[in-house]
Design brief:
This protein has 68 residues and is of the alpha+beta class. 32% of the residues lie in helices and 34% in strands. It has a four-stranded antiparallel beta sheet with strand order 2-3-1-4, with helices on one face. Strand 2 and strand 3 form a beta hairpin. It binds copper (II) ion. The site of copper (II) ion (CU) has 4 residues, from helix 1. The site of copper (II) ion has 4 residues, from helix 1.
Length: 68
């Protein structure tokens, strides 16, 4: 397992935080994701053999937010 941090743009409230967290946890290979509103940031624990940064970015974007 590896951990990485993503800067997330577009979150304005706790609902956004939950949406981003759910999106990241839905990516195959991601085992855990913690998201904070201020600053907009996500810490993702993932299996590098299964999850990719591109996949994480796509999931966040599909939820309506952006990875900076
Ligand atoms: Cu919100």
């Amino acid at each position: 397992m590896e951990t990485l941090q993503l800067k997330i743009d577009g979150m304005t409230c706790q609902h956004c935080v939950m949406s981003v967290m759910k999106a990241l946890k839905g990516v195959p290979g991601v085992s855990d994701a913690t998201v904070s509103l201020t600053p907009g940031q996500a810490t993702v624990t993932y299996d590098p053999a299964k999850a990719t940064l591109v996949g994480m970015k796509k999931a966040v974007e599909e939820a309506g937010y952006r990875v900076a």
